[in-house]
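Help: read this over?
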Amino acid sequence: MATKYIVNNVSGQTINGELLQPYKVYTALLTQTGGDDPQTISAGALVVGVTYEITNYQSGDDFTNIGAPLNETGIKFVATGTSPNVWTNNSELSYNNGAPVVTVLENTIGNINFQYSYIGNYTVNCEPNNFFLVGKTIGFIGSVGDDPSAPSYGYLRANGPDRFIILTQDSTLVDADAMLLNTPIEIRVYN
């Protein structure tokens, strides 16, 4: 049964005994290691939690069972499985080993994916575009780094109606990779 959302932000309402939610939510854990390392593949197993882009779609291949909302060139998705329905026609997928790997805990928003931008800077994209409604979307990121004696910093900020930016810095406030280790993120889009 699909989750229903309320229009007027009043919690506790029900329809036919089903609780209505005041917002849609994306909650996940992020881990990011290494730096910029783009790759392209045309066969093999995918890695769950990695963002892939269909860079050269060939008719007949089917990635919808592993997270792709559509089978088209340019579609980005976080893999939810390792084996596409069909991948025998040489479609190409690209990914970046430096982008955050995601463990999705809850997603009622839709197709969220992640990109490596540059050292300590990652993009959280929502497709279709313009879903992060201005004035109705908030985001949170938890603590970053794993050394309590050298605090690190992570920031999540909106960057338009279809993306957030994650910035990570070491204890000297220098942009740094490899600061996200099961770091919680939550994005809420209120009705």
Remarks:
- The mean pLDDT is 87.
- The longest strand covers residues 180-190.
- The chain has no helices and 14 strands.
- The chain has two domains: 23-35+99-190, 38-96.
